[in-house]
Amino acid sequence: MGTLLILFPIALGVIVVIIVRTWTQYRQAQHEQQTAIMHKYQQRKLLRFAGTGLLISAALAMVGAIVLGGDMLGQSRNTSRCLMVLLMLPIAAYDLMVWRCPQCNRYLGKLSDPQFCASCGAQLR
């Protein structure tokens, strides 16, 4: 009985140490995962910014072609419009492919800088 009284607190202490270490490792892994998600989000945000710049440039070129009466790149007015629309479609598709949550890979929507993903709730910034 005396040995049991000595071993019980030691065993309890070992169990507490194991639980604390496991919890600490879990929290550290969770923090690393959150940091990776935020880093991926920042990269995607930068890529989206570049794609949006291309889309705006294409839109301005299309408006210029319509307002100036065509003859853009030596083409007629209707051909210029078609070329600009054809240029804008892949850029818009690019935006739909890039602007996704790093956690669940769903589209982040129309917000320019969301704090959380609306689908999975991942913190993005």
What does the model show?
The chain is mostly helical and 125 residues long. It is built from two helices and no strands. The protein has helices at residues 2-67, 77-98. The model has no long low-confidence stretch (mean pLDDT 81).
Entry keywords:
rod-shaped, 70% helix, single chain, mainly alpha, 125 residues, 2 helices
Shape: rod-shaped
| Quaternary organization | single chain
Number of strands: 0
- Based on secondary structure, the structural category is mainly alpha
Low-confidence stretches: none
- What value does the average pLDDT take? 81
Strand content: under 5%
Q: Termini distance?
A: 57 Å
Query: Could you estimate the helical fraction of the residues in percent?
Result: over 70%
SS element count, helices: 2
Main sheet properties: none
List the secondary-structure elements in sequence, H or E: HH
Cα radius of gyration in angstroms: 28 Å
State the gist of this model.
By secondary structure, the protein is mostly helical. 70% of the residues lie in helices and 0% in strands.
Set down the secondary structure blueprint.
Elements: H1 2-67, H2 77-98
